[in-house]
Amino acid sequence: GEQWRDATIVVTSFPNSSIQLPAYREAYFGSLPTALTQRGQRVVLFALYAKRALSHILALRRVSQGLPVVPQEAYLTWPDLLACGARALIQWRKRFPYREPVQINGISVDVLVEQEIAESCQSRSLFWHLCIAAAARRLGQRLAPARCVYPFENRAWERMWLTGLRESSPQTPCIGYQHTAFTRGHTNLVFGPQEAETIPLPDVILTAGEVVKRWLEAVGRYPQGRLQVGCALYQCPRPPVRQEREARPLRIRRVLVALSN
User: Is the pLDDT higher at 79 or at 47?
Assistant: First the structure.
């Protein structure tokens, strides 16, 4: 509604974020939405659904009083859905063309590229991504957000979100938060030559620490000045735990380290 014009839009997704009645837990940004609200900023959590959309929407209605959490479907009209469905059917028949042969070390990989394009056009992800662009476009028209923050992994849905939002609200600054662990295997965070010049990117990318920023600057081919150092937002501070001294010295025999990736 009009009361949320010029608000900060925080994009999140389910099932990573969860609704455990009567509470809502944000998975990517931790206490950031609450902290922004306490500083007098208006915040809207924009929820994307990867699966079980209907059950999540019904649960969300029960906890949304006092919480500005809106689902993607709130900004999709019937004409939007029909247009996205028609576009998905057209691409399913025609596929996406590419302009020139694709080679790796002089070896043609056109067959692999064509197969990947065919699988992508035949999957439901194409329709979902088109709906994300349509929802972002309509949200920009209605709210004209002051800023947009979203979890940055350089995925297809993020590019569709940026495309839709910038079509209707080009003045809205977009901030991507790189929240995941980064290794040499995370090729989605590394660009090819001139790739970063042709795809939608946020205005600022906050990294989870200085080490990740230096690494992405060295190998990622990001535009100059696009990366800035951030922090781990979902690592909430905890009060120190007071431990009583052991009567006897503790002998450590094994140390177990649990890695998330």
Answer: 79
pLDDT, tens digit, for every residue of 32-72?
887 888 888 888 888 886 566 666 666 666 655 555 778 88
Compute the chain's Rg from CA coordinates. Answer: 21
Residue with tokens 């735990």: 241
Residue with tokens 């306490």: 38
Q: Which two tokens stand for residue 158?
A: 């993020």
Query: What is 164-186 written as a DSSP string?
Result: HHHHH-TTS-EEEE--S---TT-
Compute the distance between CA of residue 51 and CA of residue 72 in angstroms, rounded to an integer: 13
Return the H-helix or E-strand segment holding 127.
helix 125-143
pLDDT at 133: 96
Q: Which strand (E) or helix (H) includes residue 8?
A: strand 8-14
Among the listed residues 202, 149, 144, 191, the one whose alpha carbon sits nearest the alpha carbon of residue 171: 144
The tokens describing 250, both together, are: 């503790």
Burial of 147 by CB count in 10 Å (0-12 exposed, 13-18 middle, 19+ buried)? middle
Residues in the chain: 261
How far is residue 201's CA from residue 199's CA, in Å, rounded to a whole number? 6
